[in-house]
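It is worth pausing here to work through a concrete case rather than discussing structure prediction in the abstract. The textbook approach is simple: state the sequence, then state the predicted structure, then interpret. We follow exactly that order.
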Amino acid sequence: MQKVHDLMTTKTPKTRVITRNVRLSFPYLFKPKKNNLDPSKDPRYTCDLLLTDSEVTNLKAAAQVAIQDKWGGKPPAHFRSPFKSGDELNAKREDRGKDPYPEYAGMTFISPWSEDPVGVVDQNADALIDKNEIYAGCFVNASVTAVAYDKGGNAGVFFALNNVQKHRDGDPFGPARISAENEFGEVDAAAAGASSGRDYL
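Step two, the predicted structure:
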């Protein structure tokens, strides 16, 4: 696989940005996510990226270039922003009687996506072999492209997901998974040789 840093050249458009050391959430990077609201739509490779203030600034600059190219700098009144508020998301969840996501509190996030498979590499920019190395809560570098759209009465900017690189580990989101080594003890040899005593009803 071509290394991530080789993909960035002097001809890279200003709408393309590599976010650095951002928190990953809800990753669907190896198997696309189905659209439960509209099964007719193609599944997407996607994730949430929880952004630092500096990354928000960089991504807003890329989005502004896409807006300038599409509408001459002034988006339509019904414009949809790709930037989402973690606090607003949690407020909506609480209104529906659901628990908030504590990691989203005070954060701005984006949900980039692609209908085509995305490249995923490790810290050495080599193809990631162990898919368990990428999980909700780890930190990644992600290449995204701001894309302006105006179709069917919907207009806005979304971020296309290009490639993802594992940056470092972090505390996993949600309940910690218990390994098989920690959950089970050694099987007693005598017990293993005895009848299972199963009841077949």
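Step three, interpretation. Strands lie at 16-33, 44-51, 79-80, 84-85, 108-110, 113-114, 119-121, 139-151, 154-168. The helical segments are 4-7, 53-71, 86-95, 180-183, 189-193.
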